[in-house]
Amino acid sequence: MQPRRLATLLLCVALVSSGGVAMSAPAAGQELVIANEADLTVLDPIRIQEAPTSFVAGLVYEQLVRRTHEGKIAPSLAERWKISPDRRTWTFTLRKGVKFHDGSEFDASVVEWHFKRALDPREGSVFRGQFSVIEKITVLDPYTIAFTLTAPNVAFLDFVMLTNGAFIPSRRAFETLGAEFPFKAVGTGPFRWGQWVQGQRVVLERNPAYWGTQPKLERLVIRPILDANTGVVELETGGVHYLMRANRDDITRLEKDPRFVVYRVPTYRARFIELNVSRPPFNDLKVRQAVNHALNVPEIINALASGMAAPVDTILPVKSPFHPAPGTYTTYPFNPERARALLAEAGWQRSAGGLRKGDQTLRVTLHSPNGRYFADKEISEVICNRLQTLGIECRVRVMDWSAFLDDVRSGRFEAAFLGWNQSSGEPSLFFDALVATGGRGNYAKYSDPALDQVLKEGLIAFSEGRRKLLYARATDIVNRNAWYVPLSNELKIAITSSRVQGYVHSAPLTDFVPVWMK
Amino acid sequence: MTTARATPLDLPVPAVPRRAGTFVRRLFRRRLVIVGAVLLGTFLLVSAAAPLLAPQGYDDQDLLRRLRPPSADFPLGTDSLGRDLLARIVWGARVSLMVGVLAMSLGLTGGSLLGLVSGFYGGRVDRLVMGLMDVLLSFPGILLALAVVAALGPGLYQVMVAVGIQQIPAFARLVRGSVLTVRKTEYAEAARVVGASDTRIMARHIVPNVVSPVIVLASLDIGTAILSSAGLSFLGLGAQPPLPDWGGMINQGRAFLRTAWWVAVFPGLAIMLTVLGFNLFGDGLRDALDPRLRQA
Amino acid sequence: MWQYIVRKAFAAIPVLLGASLLAFLILQLAPGDPARLVAGEQASEDDVELIRQRLGLDRPLHIQYLRFLQSVAAGDLGRSIRTGRAVRDEITARFPYTMELAIASLLLSVTLGVIAGVLAAVRPNTVYDYGATLIALTGISTPTFWLGLLLMLLFAYYLGWLPASGRGGPLWTVAGLASIIMPAIALGTPSAAIISRLTRSSLLEVLRQDYVRTARSKGLAERVVVLHHSLRNALIPVITVVGLRLGALLGGAVITEQVFSWPGMGTLIVTAISSRDYPTVQGAMLVVATVFVLVNLAVDLIYAAVDPRIRYE
Prior knowledge:
The structure holds three protein chains of three kinds.
Chain A (H helix, E strand, L loop, with lengths): L1 H17 L12 E6 L14 H10 L4 E3 L5 E3 L2 E6 L5 E6 L13 H12 L8 H4 L2 E8 L2 E6 L6 H6 L9 H7 L13 E7 L3 E6 L12 E6 L3 H9 L5 E2 L4 H8 L4 E16 L9 H10 L2 H9 L3 E3 L24 H10 L3 E3 L2 E4 L2 E2 L1 E7 L6 H14 L3 E7 L1 H9 L5 E7 L5 H8 L14 H12 L3 H18 L2 E14 L2 E2 L14 E2 L1
Parallel strand pairs in A: 1-10, 1-11, 17-18, 17-19
Antiparallel strand pairs in A: 2-3, 4-5, 5-7, 6-7, 8-9, 9-10, 11-20, 12-19, 12-20, 13-20, 14-15, 15-16, 21-22
Chain B lengths: L1 H4 L14 H8 L3 H18 L1 H4 L31 H37 L1 H15 L5 H10 L3 H28 L2 H9 L3 H37 L11 H9 L7 H28 L1 H4 L2
Helix pairs in contact in B: 2-12, 3-5, 3-12, 5-6, 5-8, 5-10, 6-8, 7-8, 8-10, 9-10, 10-11, 10-12, 11-12
Chain C lengths: L1 H28 L4 H6 L5 H10 L6 H13 L13 H36 L4 H15 L2 H15 L15 H34 L2 H8 L4 H39 L4 H10 L3 H29 L7
Helix pairs in contact in C: 1-12, 5-6, 5-8, 5-10, 5-12, 6-8, 7-8, 7-10, 8-10, 10-11, 10-12, 11-12
């Protein structure tokens, strides 16, 4: 009790001295306990790449722009921006009077310093590749900064300004904290860094000097809870108030329980099986099509992941504004007879030992991560079982993430359960990475000049109608060639105690500013 | 895991050869050994008869009957892919038996050879081998096996190797100790004087005398190996799906602990009863082979 | 005595060197590229190469190992690839929690084990004795992670008496104490079983000694004979095992910590292995091995102090 009382007292002093904001302040001492999937790693924005850290970073740091609940791009640290007539230069007008949590001033020099650091090969930035679209950064005055790109790019804000790498940290913190910098987030956001007890909790406090609306909560406590099952028990026993994942069957149960509220919304997390086109047996289009026809994806996803993932038939998430209308692109409805026929057409004959062509047997190993994506291993097991009934000899190979990534990235796989997460439905974030020649996530090294041309046009077409048309065409080309088996879009879920009030759940944004506890 | 390794704390001294009949009678005089024998017998029988007991195999999925509680149709319920848990446990017995026996064999072969060589030649060889064993033993419990599996990648055979390596030092130390005792005896000395070769002395005089303590350790070690491999499988490093592996089944069931307890509970029970069988039997075997402890 | 201590301590050095080499080599065999992991899924090959150089992973193996040894000698275990923190800090943040879990399990298992062992020994070959033996062997045969899940199911889910996971706080607080109960029971059960078996056989041995017979023949109550005359001597071998169990518990904690999300070394090591965080795995394994070797050394020395014959063997 003692420390809390002291904190309350300090808070009152702070409120009084900051003059009159007390009107909007709720009951003091309120805290929300959030279960995070893992402990944090590094909070240096240019090195944040996994979701648990990104989640916490998003509460402390801010970007020049942000997404709204509706998915629109809105001002944040930049008040407005404009694009030059040649569409290569983006000029941002920064918000004035914003201070970092350490009291230092936010201005164009900090933004310039940050992005130059993100591009510096010596700094170990994981965003260097992605940010290399930036050719030049120019500070026009203390509150105006211009980014000149190597080529016009409609998706510049998604590509750069909405990534973890675009969280703006305090330059003073970087200069004074030294080796401690990656472990303390000093930003401009509504919450400021409190304490990090490794493996146990991170505490964030309300930032009384926040430029925007003051958070109602005094404190956020973020606990790493590695196991989904444990998270549910913690929620039920009052150990946490906000949970971001649970098993399907627990969700169904909690939904009926008045003590909890379950939120879910489809998001930009695509899940699919990639069939490796550059080696047998999937270098044969007919075999790929047969696999697509052989799997009843809606049935599998609904049985194993309903409430956590929604079945889909494209690699572009359904929530994307550029997702083509149903019926305008090729799909592969569940049809085992058609699958068998396609395999026969491809020359695979049924025999006692399975499907054979000459002295070969049709054999597939499905690489699967374990726990990286929702029910990944189980879904892989079911898929293999289904291929088995078709006569394809199928084995699942479950690997830990680093070994999995190693095999998949070097093309040592026949089929692999994969995912691609983005923070928005901007189609180029999916297509350019997954299917363009040389794309970062194009593990099977697929290459199709016609498709590349469509995608190139998509990046410079500034009309939304034209883009919709182009990406519908791309979707159809991808599906016709059938080297992806689209599975699902994972949902973003939140399960809260019913004491949690004022929370709004949406795919693009997680915001605790309006939240308070009943 | 580590824990069971300490069971053979009081290992028997080499036994004097005796008639088999009395040995069996002595073995089964203790009631607990009978319990152990019954558990072991059931385990072996189930492994052997898996195709008869569960003709549908271990991967008979049906997503429409997932996570059914125990009932007349599915005595132990179904798992998250709608597979009969009893069938998976029955087939899983084979996997456990294989892992236990092969890992133990690796430990036994490697450890016995090293121990034999080390004890027989002594000196520098002895110091080197035992130093190596000390290094292996300096990683407590499952840590070494964990690192080995991390290096080899997950899978049934990798787990066997990891667990087998973990068991080498215990055999090496036991055999070395026995060899040292036997070497000092008169008949070994006598054989040497007559000019018998090293191999011959080892094969004819030393090995027979080391056999009985090794058998005891081996029977206890199968249990230990099953436990250790279950631990690795629980961490998700064991048999690849769809192969049923008890530790892996517990790991899978853990996700449904609240909604479908049976998925995690029954495979654990199977592990416990099997390992208990090996321990009870091995314990009885030790008492029967070791006259010193018999009265106790 | 001093000579013995020094000799024993020096004997530990090659073992630790061997352990560090083993930890180093095993991870080198492992598939998965740490530089790629640091660079991230979406990085280009050039970026990966840069990061490889920055981490020193492009150097030949023996140079990497020597550099590792060199910095260990200077008390520096390197930097974690995954988090960029000093490995020493990562370990100091977690080691105390593993230690407190291991010690709590040890206390629990000694208490239960000695009581059960004495009860079995005073009534040898009775139902009590068989019962105690059966329970002990069952304890040894139970997978600790499964026992942990059962405890969680019962005490956290159905009864709601104990927190399901995590460390509630320092052990002198109610929340902290409550949170350690289940992990300590799960981890300590096999040790309790082993200690009870050993206490039983050791006490039986002592009860057959002449001086005990004399005490009995003097007409002393059986309780006095057991507790005052015999137990103290019978516990000498038990003490050795208690020391060894502490090391074993440190190892066993790897899995128990996973079940209960206990923030100790186990969680650190498992995460580090799966992310190919070489420096962390090496450092953590080295620290655990060192502690284990030191505990064994201490046990040897205590034993030698208690029983001088050992020193001259």
